[in-house]
């Protein structure tokens, strides 16, 4: 492994690459990499630490545990929100398993995708729904993402919404609808 590029090693360890790793891999000067990363952050495509050099999240994934676990090939990753989790399969053109829980009662919600992310299968809660929150401000990760979640039923979504003050603004989606939204957002990301 000694001669393997550092960025690749970082990815294989499930960690984001450091600017120096990206520089080694691409031949772009480290200072330029840092500037590019900051530009990506301004466009709300990634999030950096306060020093502006360490990648904390890059949609749809984050280092921080969110409760939305995505099994992608041999990796177990944290998705920033329910819709991000649902978009991963289309983004990578493969099928995934998602394990999350009802935001209201904590009951496990698990499913796999089929047909490279175009459909859902093995859904543990067939009546599960997604709340797509619209409270965007500065970055999705810091505003709407924490509230874009799975619920085991409409009743538990209703209970959760009723307890929120001020009232949350968003849309209730079936899992199939949320899958289509995730596909629309993340499907084109890695298409060249
Ligand atoms: Zn529930």
Describe the overall structure.
This protein is α+β, with helices and mostly antiparallel strands and 192 residues long. The protein folds into two domains: 3-58; 62-186, 2-Layer Sandwich (Beta-Lactamase). The chain has six helices and eleven strands. It has helices at residues 6-12, 19-26, 30-42, 82-92, 154-162, 175-186, and strands at 46-48, 55-58, 61-62, 69-72, 75-79, 96-101, 108-114, 119-121, 129-133, 149-151, 170-174. Helix 1 crosses helix 2, helix 2 crosses helix 3 (30-42) and helix 4 (82-92) packs across helix 6. The protein is globular. The two termini are 29 Å apart. The structure holds zinc ion. Residues 102, 104-105, 107, 151-153, 156 line the site of zinc ion.
Descriptive labels:
192 residues, Beta-Lactamase, 2 domains, eight-stranded antiparallel β-sheet, 31% helix, binds zinc ion
Please state the second-level CATH architecture of the largest domain: 2-Layer Sandwich
- Strand residue percentage: 15-25%
Amount of helix = 25-40%
Rounded to the nearest angstrom, the distance between the terminal CA atoms is 29 Å
Mean pLDDT: 91
Strand runs, count: 11
Structural class: alpha+beta
- The DSSP helix count reads 6
Q: Which parts are unreliable, with pLDDT below 50 for 5 consecutive residues or more?
A: 1-10
In CATH's first tier, which class of the largest domain applies? Alpha Beta
H-E string: HHHEEEEEHEEEEEHEH
Question: How would you write the strand order of the largest sheet?
Answer: 1-2-3-5-4-6-7-8
At CATH level 3, the topology of the largest domain is Beta-Lactamase
């Amino acid at each position: 492994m000694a001669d393997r590029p550092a960025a690749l090693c970082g990815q294989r360890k499930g960690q984001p690459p450091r600017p120096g790793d990206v520089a080694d891999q691409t031949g772009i000067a480290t200072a330029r990499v840092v500037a590019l990363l900051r530009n990506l952050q301004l466009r709300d495509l990634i999030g950096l630490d306060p020093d502006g050099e360490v990648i904390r999240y890059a949609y749809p994934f984050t280092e921080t545990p969110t409760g939305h676990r995505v099994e992608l090939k041999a990796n177990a990753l944290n998705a920033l929100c329910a819709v991000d989790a649902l978009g991963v399969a289309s983004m990578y053109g493969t099928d995934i398993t998602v394990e999350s829980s009802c935001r209201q009662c904590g009951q496990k919600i698990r499913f796999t995708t089929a047909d490279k992310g175009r459909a859902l299968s093995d859904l543990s809660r067939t009546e599960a729904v997604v709340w797509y929150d619209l409270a965007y401000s500065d970055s999705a990760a810091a505003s709407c993402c924490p509230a874009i979640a799975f619920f085991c039923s409409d009743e538990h979504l209703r209970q959760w919404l009723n307890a929120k003050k001020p009232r949350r603004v968003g849309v209730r989606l079936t899992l199939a609808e949320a899958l289509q939204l995730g596909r629309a957002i993340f499907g084109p990301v890695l298409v060249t």
